[in-house]
Specification:
Rossmann fold, Alpha-Beta Plaits, 5-stranded mixed sheet, 10 strands
Length: 290
């Protein structure tokens, strides 16, 4: 669904009626004084009816979508957007639809490229590129508001055995099953990524270490109950996972970033593996025992 937002000083029923003919497009008119709050309406395309009233906003914002200006083309201003175009008054209906569709295609192509570059092809989860960006953002938010942020790094135990016994096709099926099971347990604000071949990293904003441990244990038990039966087998192959938890801030008087928090979760995961697997280990508890 494309979200077309017209910024104007008055209602624009004529333009709305024309654009309503575009398939899967939602059109609305918003007072141009609210353009600085464009992120709230999440536009796919912005239409501005008077460029002179938007000059300040255009200079101080980088818009994540194309912009279509109604009026004569100009070169004496700066536009920071994914693309822009002009259409002159009086409006020609066909020209408006053609130019609008062209800009919407730019937005769709950009969104697709962003999704491909930040998505793991096999599982459909976010990849490490996306993780790095989002985890830094969440750490900054946690620092600003004084809240806890937890990470859990899960690893499928003896995954190589599954590939060796049943083939890589069944290894892929297991990975997708685990990813789907974990994804179904998340809150809207949680961030799940495929971190390695058989590793999944989960970021839990505003979550204490204790609550992260409860989540990790619940998922570990759910995996234990899985019925993974490759083709030709009569009995289920037992599947377990291990996990390592780190919670920001992890250590006092240490300047911690995304890489630091992930590294602590990795240490806790390795500790869980060393203890015999099928365990969830907290980094803080591991330090107490060292």
């Amino acid at each position: 669904m494309s979200n077309i937002v017209i910024y104007s000083t008055k209602p624009m029923p004529q333009i709305e009626a024309i654009l309503a003919e575009i398939d899967e497009a939602e059109v609305r008119t918003v007072d141009i004084n609210q353009i600085k709050d464009y992120a709230v309406v999440n536009p796919s395309l912005i239409i501005i009816t008077d460029i002179n009233l938007a000059t300040d906003a255009l200079m101080t914002n980088k818009f994540p979508c194309p912009i279509l200006f109604i009026g004569s083309a100009r070169r004496d201003f700066t536009v920071r957007a994914d693309g822009f175009d002009f259409i002159e008054n009086p409006l020609n209906k066909d020209e408006l639809i053609v130019r609008t569709n062209a800009l919407l295609k730019i937005k769709a192509a950009k969104d697709l490229l962003e999704k491909v570059s930040t998505t793991d092809e096999l599982t459909g989860l976010h990849n490490r590129k996306y993780l790095q960006e989002r985890l830094e953002e969440e750490i900054s938010r946690s620092k600003r508001y004084g809240t806890k942020l937890s990470c859990i790094l899960f690893d499928i135990d003896f995954f190589k055995v599954v590939n060796d016994m049943y083939g890589y096709e069944w290894g892929d099926i297991l990975l997708k099953n685990i990813a789907n099971k974990l994804d179904a347990m998340l809150r809207k604000e949680d961030i799940l990524t495929r971190y390695g071949d058989e590793e999944f990293l989960l970021v839990l904003p505003n979550t204490t270490e204790e609550n992260a441990f409860l989540f990790g244990e619940r998922f570990r038990r759910e995996v234990e109950k899985m019925e993974f039966i490759p083709a030709g087998e009569e009995e289920a192959h037992r599947i377990t996972v291990s996990g390592g938890i780190s919670t920001y801030p992890c250590m006092a008087d240490v300047d911690e970033d995304a890489n630091t928090v992930i590294r602590y979760a990795e240490h806790a995961l390795y500790n869980a593996k060393h203890r015999g697997k099928n365990k969830i280990i907290q980094f803080s508890q591991m330090n107490l025992e060292m």
